[in-house]
Amino acid sequence: MFSRPVFSGPGRPARRVVRRRRAVAVPFTPLATTAAIVLLASVLLGGCSSTDSASAVVCVSPGVSDRQVDLGVIYPQTGPASGIFGAVRAGVDARLGAANAAGGIHGRKVVYQWRDDQGTPQTNVAAAHDLVEQQHVFGVIGLSVAGPASTAYLSQAGVPVTGTAYGQYGANAVAVDTPGRFVYEQGGRRAVILQTALSRAVSNSAASYGRSLAAAGVQVLGAITYTDGVDDPAVVGRRIAQTGADTVIGVLAPRDLVTVVDAVRGGGYPLKAVLSASGYDHQLLRTVGPRMAGISIPVFYRPFELGGRGVQAYVDAMRRYAPQVAEPEQDMAVAAYISTDMFLRGLALAGPCPTRSGFQIALRTLNSYDADGLISPISLRSAAGQTSACYSFVQANAAGNGFVVVEPNLCGRELT
Question: What is the pLDDT of residue 175?
Fold first, then answer.
């Protein structure tokens, strides 16, 4: 089994850089950092009200009835970041579908309501308030660039949360040097960050990438925004070439990154490295083909190319319970699947009459959570939202018809 990646919580000193390579038959690292994805398990115990208790006979917790448990899901269906999160509900549907087909959790069917936060902090907070105060959900699965905006409210209310945060919101976002190290090893020395416009959370994520690059010795020449249907890809491509960059970091919809990179290459300008914050998507690869060749993506779970029981269970669930997605190999669908699996695990451990506080206490007993083989084992006993400095990197092959695992596990250090 692959050794557990280093976790650096707030206030801890950075640890030495550890590199493990060519261990092909291993599960992948658990988490990407704030430059990409942070897996969150909200196990804070403050703010639980007296109505959160339950007798041995009657379950009185919000969202819990005799037959089902109601959850809330928050993600950006619309807005600048929506292109990254399109497969979120498919991942939730797949994991809940498999669980409910097996009898649910303690005999209860688990269902959900979803809200579109448009990727903005204000809408994210409003969505959380609505789900908790009006819809009375038991807990929340959050998958959004703006997810951290509602963290304080949900924690104070004692509402269980699992999910992912694509880039932390605010000036204190944590970064690691691992993406920068990968770029450096690919030969990159001068980078431009290409990002979505009009999204503060995406800008924060881009800034985390900038810190990572700089820490690894890669010069950041600046950030350039691109909006599909507004900006001319050829013009943006020329702007990138004029900077003298040999690397492009994409913090925007993968299809938009492909469009701009294609324009750069089409202008005869070579690039040594292209790193996309997301885009490990076989359906996208089938669509854009060779135009995606050489683009690398960091992932926080076991790459599909390595196979294994966890990967097979995920693919089977997607095909059965999320048939609307033709290609189940999509990174955001996997993130949503894992986030939902974590919530189901907490519900199961909380017992036949779950309470919010009981759920959170139960999750803190897990010292080796691996999403049934999709990630390397992680401990949920410590504080929520810890980041890992370890990634796997996949890359579209030269023909543009498949991905290869170019780095099964690269570990760096947290930047404080």
Answer: 80
- Res 113: pLDDT: 97
Domain at 38-171+306-376, CATH class: alpha beta
Instruction: List the structure tokens of 407.
Output: 């780095």
Question: Structure tokens of 266?
Answer: 């089409």
Mean pLDDT value of segment 79-106: 93
Beta strands per DSSP E along 174-269? 175-176, 190-195, 219-225, 247-251
Q: Do domains 38-171+306-376 and 175-301+391-415 have the same CATH topology?
A: yes
The model's pLDDT over 317-366, given as tens digits with 9 standing for 90+, comes to: 999 999 988 889 888 899 999 999 999 999 999 999 999 999 999 988 88
Q: Which CATH number fits domain 175-301+391-415: 3.40.50.2300, 3.10.20.10, 3.40.50.300, 3.30.930.30?
A: 3.40.50.2300
The string of pLDDT tens digits covering residues 108-127 is 999 999 999 998 999 999 99
Domain boundaries, the chain: 38-171+306-376, 175-301+391-415
Distance set, CA 16 to CA 5, 177, 316, 411, 413 (Å): 12, 12, 39, 9, 7
